[in-house]
Hints:
Elements: H1 12-26, H2 35-57, H3 62-81, H4 88-119
Amino acid sequence: MNEPTTRPWTRPHDWAEVVIGVVVALSPLWMTTDSTAMWSLVILGALIALDGLASLAMPGMVYGEGIQIVLGALLFVSPWVMGFATFMGASWTAWVGGVLTVVAGAAAMPIAQATHKTAGQH
């Protein structure tokens, strides 16, 4: 097993999740939004970043990657569900950020499962 993936704060997938979450959460600062779009992006972005940090701190936390996938899916559908699809910048941020979050979470899932199994063998 590749040693860096079992140590806290070393997994690139989780760092990607943190960066995606921070960019999404801060995106209302540089684009036109309404209150609904702003809070949707800020809250979902913050949750994505916080879950990424939790996964970085505890590399064997498999359910954290599952939560990440769900948060990415929620971010992706948020322009339609929350009614801000007319704000193109906010919508594209949600769509791209959502897809990238799902991809990062899905890519990190096998690594988290392997780390969890390794940690359980002590």
